[in-house]
Amino acid sequence: MKDKFYIVNLFIILVLLLTSDTVVAKKRWQDSFIKPKEVAAEKSAVKAIARARLALEEADILHQAYITLIAENFTTGPGVLNAVDITEKVFEIVEKKGKYKARILSTAEKPLLSKYAPRDDFEVYAIKIILSGKSYYERVFFDYDGKDFLRASTPVSVTTKKCLVCHPTKKVGDIMGIISYTFPLEEYYK
């Protein structure tokens, strides 16, 4: 009788766990548990993430290229036209268009301006990963409100001697910052 009671209760708990959405946290990582009925959604998410990664890679190539071009061709001294100011303006335009969000972060322990400091755990960890020698760091976030997104970071290095005009403590090849990207996955599910 006692065994039957435990088996019935175990079965009830198992059914509740398998059918309850409360088992899955509000925000979960890419490798979180996915129920069998979500397999199709998972395949769609994997494809969306791959498409977002491709778009992110293309955006990063573009941003890195013009940061170097501006530094090499237009930077004449601190306070004058510089790569970071122009990059921030480009990021504002892209965000207004609804494509993605991006921002530059300093890798310094205490950035000169607070706007270049990390805002959350992802950015704190991204800086650590990039400074450890990795050239890319990402996490995928899923949200029940339909706001799934890919977050990624890439290094910003001193690529030319002209960068040293504003960053005199660095040398060519040093990492001086990262670009932190947030790509909404919604348009990539299509």
Share of residues in helices: 40-55%
**CATH class annotation:** Alpha Beta
Measure the end-to-end span: 54 Å
* Low-pLDDT regions: 13-31
Summed up, the helix count is 4
Structural class: alpha+beta
CATH topology: Beta-Lactamase
> What general outline do the C-alpha atoms trace?
globular
Q: Under the CATH scheme, which architecture would be assigned? A: 2-Layer Sandwich
Tell me about the largest β-sheet. Answer: 5 strands, antiparallel
What Rg is obtained from the alpha carbons, in whole angstroms? 22 Å
Average pLDDT metric: 79
Count of discrete domains: 1
Helices and strands, in order, run as HEHHEHEEE
Strand composition percent:
15-25%
Short description:
The chain has 190 residues and is of the alpha+beta class.
List the helices and strands and how they pair.
Elements: H1 2-19, E1 27-29, H2 39-73, H3 83-96, E2 101-106, H4 121-131, E3 137-143, E4 149-157, E5 175-184
Antiparallel strand pairs: 1-3, 2-5, 3-4, 4-5
Helix pairs in contact: 2-3
Question: Can you offer a commentary on this structure?
Answer:
With 190 residues, the protein is an alpha+beta fold. It has one domain (37-188): 2-Layer Sandwich (Beta-Lactamase), CATH 3.30.450. It has helices at residues 2-19, 39-73, 83-96, 121-131; strands at residues 27-29, 101-106, 137-143, 149-157, 175-184. The protein has a five-stranded antiparallel β-sheet, with helices on both faces. β3 and β4 (149-157) form a beta hairpin. 23% of the residues are buried.
